Amino acid sequence: xxxxxxxxxxxxxxxxxxxxxxxxxxxxxxxxxxxxxxxxxxxxxxxxxxxxxxxxxxxxxxxxxxxxxxxxxxxxxxxxxxxxxxxxxxx
Length: 91
Hints:
A two-stranded antiparallel ribbon has the order 1-2. The protein has 3 helices and 2 strands; from the N terminus they run βαααβ. The chain has helices at about 20-25, 35-45, 50-65, and strands at about 15-20, 75-80.
């Protein structure tokens, strides 16, 4: 995704979480953003959840953080979870 990035082969249970800046920039009434730290804590806390459930949980946590504050950006999250190693079929 980035020129200097390195990647390893995914193992069962590994997650890829892609998100828009609206997730981390969502502010509460005290003008504190949800932030990358908030997102990381949420992902680590709920990492065992199925991918669709984790995505819904992240949305809920951001909405709860923002409360009645108007969200300035879009909220987009894509969660991909490696669930098993699949061997190629024998010929």
